[in-house]
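Hi everyone,

Forwarding the result from last night's run.
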Amino acid sequence: MRLTGVIDYSMGNFLCIRGFCPMIKLANISETIPEIQRDLLSEHAGEMDRFLSSGEFTFFPEVILCSDLAANGAEYDAITSLRVAVRQKQNFNGWVGPFKFATKGYELKSKEDERKKDNVQTVYMDFDVTKTAKFLRIDGNHRLSAVNEHSAYKDAAIPFCLLLFNGASETDKFCRALFHNINTKQIPLKDEENLSVIIESVDVFSDDDLANNFGTPYLYTRKICDRINLSHYPLIEKYIGNSQYTYFVGIFEHLLKEGLIEDKPECVDVIIQKLSDINTALRESGIANVTENIAVLGAMTFYKLQDQVKYRSFINWVQKNNIGIADKLHINDVISIYDSVYAHTPKRVFLARWYPDSEPNLSKAKGRLAVIKRIVEQDFGLELIDLGTKGGGTYSIRDLMYREIEASDIFIADLTSNRHNVMVEVGYAIKNVGLERMLLYFEPMDGAENPPFDLNGFRYEQIADSNDIERKVKPKLKDILDGVALGEL
């Protein structure tokens, strides 16, 4: 194996070789540093492969590798000879352990001062890859991890920097320090600044360029921003106007990923038609009173368009947990976090009830239903399963009832009037949901002043009217949800 390039001390500190080499060769002669490098996640592998295969605008800075010369068997004197020769701008030709170095200096007159000369030292570094330890990757691990023998870009030359260290202690110390500095000392542009450079440059990047090299979400974002007047949507303009590219690119990416819109130009019309609903949601949810974080607002829009139950639950989660205080969130982060939270959060509440057909009890029953429905759906963002069972029901209804109870996370029963079918549902829920996730309430009425005898040992809330549901039942529902969140239920 031969590496070629120039050799010198960077910033006077680190002896390094800089050059170009086919990507697959660099990947094969190097490996990750497990203690400091992240493995390439499977979901990112495809993304990196698509970027590297994209063609016209594929570019990235050099990958940074290092080699511990001493660990490869190089003697101290040989390492010192190479270091001194390079620092003194002298030619070197010899072995340093298993590596054969051949350097040659070229003197060029300085353009700034003819009395001075610039010295450039070229280098050949030859070695047998079967007899040397693999180089370590300080930066560029994800790029090199993505390439394989079947990659279309495997033979493409990429820039590299190979740092030459002397000993395990020096290698470990400098690898960690350089990895830290590379990943923390940069001041990245904000997403909106990055996106505006591409999306606004119509004369430089055509619509086809956007779609083919950056993705259709970029193209659809350009189209929607050209067509809409944000002043027609005052709350969207207020909270999103300064980050419209970030907002719309994120929305299009996730809606396309979930298959909620088709990947064709007409999807822009679909989103434009939803903007009024989104503007209304910003007002009604009150989320902007809690945070103006563009990532949170973008995630809110996604859930609003994806699933109404999940949307209400997301609003409740944001308001409860002050998610928006994190200022470096991306919409992808918020959606990923909440999807994980939602997967372990109660979502379905089964309501067992029986309602009379005549007044005055019918009006009271409707009042109780309205209150518990508002609490479950609006206050806690959960889905209420209400079959409205009456009488004994048919077998098919009873069978559906059993399936819905089994699929529910929380069970609520209105025991008022002591109806037999409600008691059957309570018994089934005890077995399939569990007492710790059950809420029972009871409003005394003529002929049914107390709950049935066999429920006296269970916890239930006695209410005087529907207003008591807010005061007595809602806190109990919150206790259940908090218990689940803490892993206690």
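Residues 267-285 form the longest helix (19 residues).

Cheers,
N.
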